[in-house]
# Entry
Amino acid sequence: MFVPAEDAHAARAWEKPVSLSAIDPRGTPDFSGDKDDAAKELEKERERIAKLQELLYAQNTHAVLVVLQGMDTSGKDGVIRHVFSGVNPQGCHVTSFKKPSEAEADRDYLWRIHAAVPGKGTIGVFNRAHYEDVLVVRVHGLVPAARWQARYAQIVEFERYLTLNHVTVIKCMLHISKDEQLQRLQDRLEDPSKRWKFNPGDIAERARWSEYQAAYGDAINLCSTPSAPWHVIPADRKWYARLAVARLVRRTLEAIDPKPPAINFDPKAIELV
Ligand code: AMP
Ligand code: MG
# Structure
């Protein structure tokens, strides 16, 4: 089951190459309101998502996988907190992918990913995902080039396999500008309540900004397919990115149109004593 890529963010790379630099990170496509309007709309989206998720759980035939990627400080954690906070925790699982553990590094790179794919009736959210294996791994040359180059086709196959097996895959790249990242890193340094989020290692990653943008561009162009399109979400305005992801999730759930299973008993014939 997949959802047609009709929204403003869909990277229809199978029709025309997508250039990240041509997408304004401060843009607010399909939304004309301000921050307060967005907060109100987000609240409504959250309620709709919660109701639809309950039906998804009741139907128990489909799963939704939301893949979140983006540079450091792009707002992945905030999107998770704001978009999924209304969903029943029993029906939603978040997995954050870090540098592989020894056991993970011992396996093929998709092993840990596949193990975390959501079960039927649930929503899974990946905070970073298998794309790290063509992003950080490529930028830092963690494996020989031929190995990461082969992964784009493997990822397309893997996602196609998931899609054919009841998992709808929504891939969002939170697209921020280099200036906005600077601002957010500075905030983390200056605000004592945010300081724990600051990772001195992020400075070294920031220095490789253009290499990361090129790697993101290839991941989007080589792995955006009609059945599992990438969505490039302008994310310099956090309130917009959160609303955009919420809309995408809600639309996906609406397209799945989950319904509770038919009952195989007559409720009137049952006498409770
Ligand atoms: P954070 O999301 O800020 O907690 O950071 C997680 C870190 O783990 C990031 O620097 C990622 O690039 C890194 N990471 C995630 N997946 C991989 C991977 N497959 N190989 C190497 N590093 C990874
Ligand atoms: Mg970090």
